[in-house]
Amino acid sequence: DKFRIAVLVGSLRKDSFNRQLAHALRRMAPEDVVLTELRIDDLPPYNQDDDAHQADSVRRLKTEVAASQGVLFVTPEYNRSIPGVLKNAIDHASRPYGQSAWAGKPAGVIGVSIGAAGTCMAQQHLRNVLAYLDMPTLAQPEAFIQAKDGLFQEDGQIGEASRQFVQGWLDRYVAWVKRFAQV
Ligand code: FNR
């Protein structure tokens, strides 16, 4: 059986570098691992009043997370934190209280930004949230990627200069997921 890893991309932008990175990662995964991006663009703004009757899109998100052995966050940095759309998705699937979809799922955090700091502040904020949600999160290696010419090839694969680094990171994260999937 294959290991399923849910991918949440923190940008809704059509040409998002982070979505491009997520697509490249999907193609770099070993044969027994499937990376699937989950939709977050159709989730309503979170409202606690709706906890007892969550929207279909929210229940879909929770079902997909529950069916995954790991959750990979590929996110830009917005104003030194994670984008609101990503926090919105995280909040939705953490509710109702006691029925969080996140608990125990081994997480990975990676991201690309224009700035040289390569999403490091956003990742640090995200790690704080994931710790509270009881998601064991790969600590090392860290991956702070800057969007430069050549990061992505024409065919969507990671360019020469960064390919080995990104593959190495993914291999470590996949090993992390498998470790938690074992009984
Ligand atoms: C940004 N950007 C940005 N970059 C960064 O390195 N640190 C930051 O704090 C911010 N803040 C920020 C806020 C907002 C509202 C926007 C729209 C952008 C720039 C960001 O790295 C750039 O737009 C990336 O291209 C966003 O990622 P995607 O959409 O390409 O995946």
TrEMBL record:
<dbReference type="GO" id="GO:0016491">
    <property type="term" value="F:oxidoreductase activity"/>
</dbReference>
<dbReference type="GO" id="GO:0010181">
    <property type="term" value="F:FMN binding"/>
</dbReference>
<dbReference type="InterPro" id="IPR005025">
    <property type="entry name" value="FMN_Rdtase-like_dom"/>
</dbReference>
<dbReference type="Pfam" id="PF03358">
    <property type="entry name" value="FMN_red"/>
</dbReference>
<dbReference type="InterPro" id="IPR029039">
    <property type="entry name" value="Flavoprotein-like_sf"/>
</dbReference>
<dbReference type="InterPro" id="IPR050712">
    <property type="entry name" value="NAD(P)H-dep_reductase"/>
</dbReference>
<dbReference type="GO" id="GO:0005829">
    <property type="term" value="C:cytosol"/>
</dbReference>
<feature type="domain" description="NADPH-dependent FMN reductase-like">
    <location>
        <begin position="4"/>
        <end position="145"/>
    </location>
</feature>
<protein>
    <submittedName>
        <fullName>Chromate reductase</fullName>
    </submittedName>
</protein>
